[in-house]
Amino acid sequence: MTIATLSFTSSFTPHHTFHHRRRRHHLLKPTTKISSQVSLTTPPSITLQPTLKKTGVIVVGAGLAGLAAAIRLHSDNIPFLLVEASDGVGGRVRTDNVDGFLLDRGFQIFITGYPEARRILDYEALDLQKFYSGAKVYYGGGFHTVADPLRHLGDAIQSLTNPIGTIVDKSLIALTRIRVLTQSDDQIFSAEETSTINLLKRIGFSDSIVDRFFRPFFGGIFFDRDLETTSRLFDFIFKCLALGDNTLPAKGISAIPEQLASKLPSNSIILNTPVKSIDSDSESESSHTVRLNNGETLKAEYGVIIAVEEPEAVKLLAGKSNDIPVQIKPPRSTVCLYFSADRAQVPVPDPVLFINGSGHGIVNNMFFATNVAPSYGPPGKVLVSVSLIGLYEDVSDEDLKTKVVEELSGWFGKEVSVGSWKYLRSYRVKFAQPNQCPPTDLQKNPKLGLGLYVCGDYRTSATFDGALVSGRKAAEALLKDRSLVQAS
Ligand SMILES: Cc1cc2nc3c(=O)[nH]c(=O)nc-3n(C[C@H](O)[C@H](O)[C@H](O)COP(=O)(O)OP(=O)(O)OC[C@H]3O[C@@H](n4cnc5c(N)ncnc54)[C@H](O)[C@@H]3O)c2cc1C
């Protein structure tokens, strides 16, 4: 990965006097102490001034949850620092630029119907590029269209008699849509729950639509082809899909966290700085000390918001609250492989998602990213994105690539020379999403104790939106405790 070398410097000053300079990422700006020129991939050694390490709130983790928490604090002019272990903002929502191709770190779709996202993001500035509302299902050696009748009526009528479900199934989809649209998000998240597969059976969907459509489509969203994920998450996603479009930002999925970070004040984000531990102070109830991996400490007068992913939260918060489990359910994992191709080697120009309804093979879904957003590749080139569910730890990248090429050659037949596609890179994401099988609580209280708050997608719905909501709510819990906002 080629990333520009940037100068990284720091000194800690109290109460929001950090300033940042934005190039590709937010960085600390020289004030008094300078360290060295570092690559964003190399953790810098930050030297802190011992007397100047205090702020109002420390937010740990600059994923969507941490960014949303920071934005909420900033809207109330609360001094804060956002401390991030890695070399950029976004957490799981990052994009790499490889030879002019925008490679999202795993296949991600931004659904415009997400309610919190609508409130906090500027969609126009994200230049969102739409997917076809539906999918092409690979089944029985061919492709069959499943289309949203409200957006592609003609296709939907044509698809009524295809083998991806019965006509009854297609009317049940319409009824499910009405059911979720007539419920509030709160009702959905607190509804009686079961697994998604049980819900689908209870509604009366046939095995053919479950196996050929729901398993690859929602299994691809949950990274769970068994559809053991809670029915609450299914209903929420189904509702958001009905309310909005599936999109990609023209500049890559990382444009979302980067837009959020750009709303924060200069030098409020510190990159390459893993937090090691958090301890409450004796002198004040809410004050906490945050110890960094490099041995330095920071003090947060009003409290700390921990916005790291679930396995990290378990480590950082071990023994601090019964609300944080000692052991978590096995997370959801995925592998995403990227290829480049010439235009002639691509079967369709459509911005459509292909899903595997055949019940065979390792590919769950794939699409031609440049068909959705031409900016995802250099002129004349096509970016191919292929997703698998699970981590395939015992299979090498080379073997996975070979299997995928063989499988897709079978999908697309002789007219498309899949073998000529150039392999670019794979991403194996072990913790793609928290496991949200029942029983779940998707509205967990962010407060662990006075001055200690948690957020992240594992506290709400395992979605962009859930992460954003949880970050805002953690900040609001802190503000309420500090009586810095009127209780609503
Ligand atoms: C491949 C993939 C596809 C996805 N697809 C979708 C999708 O299509 N739609 C959707 O809605 N959601 C999708 N998701 C889920 C979505 O990305 C997450 O729910 C959301 O981004 C979680 O945000 P977060 O802030 O809770 O956690 P994270 O993004 O994990 O952020 C946590 C941050 O904390 C930092 N951190 C960890 N430990 C420390 C430490 N000790 N000190 C300092 N910092 C630390 C991490 O580096 C990270 O930046 C997908 C996820 C993946 C991986």
From TrEMBL:
Domain of life according to the entry: Eukaryota
Domain Amine oxidase stretches: 64-479
SUPFAM superfamilies for this protein: FAD/NAD(P)-binding domain
Family matches, as Gene3D superfamilies: FAD/NAD(P)-binding domain, protoporphyrinogen ix oxidase, domain 3, Protoporphyrinogen oxidase, mitochondrial, domain 2
GO molecular function list: oxidoreductase activity
Name of this chain's protein: Amine oxidase domain-containing protein
